[in-house]
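PROTEIN DATA CARD
Card holder: DNSL2 protein
Chain length: 163
Origin: Ceuthmochares aereus
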Amino acid sequence: SCVTILPFCLCSVSTSPYDYEISDLLGRDNYKEMYLFIYRTDVVSVVETYQYEDPEDVFSREPFILRVSAPHSKAEQFVLVPLHSAPRDAVAEIDALYDVYLAIINKWGTDNIMFLGDFNADCAYVQPSDWSAIRLRTSDLFKWLLPDSADTTVGKSDCAYDR
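Structure generated from the sequence above:
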């Protein structure tokens, strides 16, 4: 598939070595997606992967979590957590990332965690009044890197999907 060919294409046009980690197909019903991480092996290495188990079935596409080692960075090990939330369930799915956070601490004993993705976290999907129900936003444990005012889209809309 194109997904597995892409890292090899990168290697053919770059002197840097690449590898990848890919999740299983995730999703409900007939619509499925995969999470794909492509990384430079001379910069980071994957220590362990973890497919979040979602006993409450909150997530349409459960996070596929990577613990990585980056010995030349300030945080020598950290965890990457992607989420592509379902637009209609964005508030509940973003809030449930707090439970993912707790599971990672329990599993790996670290809070060096970065949440990534298309959260569908603006405009019609997450209203300003919804943020008070999202623990990632109300807890002082988390730092949001992008202000709500940042326009991170390339289209005419300024609906941010990444906060």
